[in-house]
Amino acid sequence: MSLPFTRLVAAIVLLPVHLVACTEWYVVNTSPRELVESTHPGRVRVDQRDATRMVIDSPMVQRDSLQGRNHGQPAAVAIADISVVAVRKANPVNTLLLVGLAVFIMAGVSAGVGGYDGGSISP
């Protein structure tokens, strides 16, 4: 099997692993202020008391608000209006399953293509 073909197959097989990203939102049992000031997460998801959900990138606390960016636009939520705050973390089980699946598929593709002789049919 040629190296460029192998790389193409590997890229196609591994692309879903990167797209899924093997992460999940985990609810945090601390206040938004404590979370942002102590761990400095790059992104948080907040559920507001009115059932509105928003993902805030680069969150920071300014006075009584959680501020950052949502879809590239400035965003701010009053801390008093936040009912739940969550952070994105890796899920090791899903990561291992996806990597294992990708390796299994690559081994199958390699074995199947290894016997391919370019399409000639012997009589």
Offer a quick outline of the entry.
The chain is of the alpha+beta class and 123 residues long. The protein is built from three helices and six strands; from the N terminus they run αβαβββββα.
Number of domain modules:
2
Q: Main β-sheet, in a few words? A: 6 strands, antiparallel
Low-confidence segments: none
Shape: elongated
Given the helix and strand composition, which structural class is it?
alpha+beta
Q: Roughly what fraction of the amino acids lie in strands?
A: 25-35%
What would you report as the Rg, rounded to the nearest angstrom? 23 Å
Mean pLDDT: 80
First and last CA, distance? 24 Å
Q: Can you list the strand order of the major beta sheet?
A: 1-6-2-3-4-5
What is the CATH architecture annotation of the largest domain? Roll
The portion of residues assigned to helices is 25-40%
| Helix-strand sequence | HEHEEEEEH
Count of DSSP strands: 6
Q: What is the CATH class designation of the largest domain?
A: Mainly Beta
The name CATH uses for the topology of the largest domain is SH3 type barrels
Count of helical regions: 3
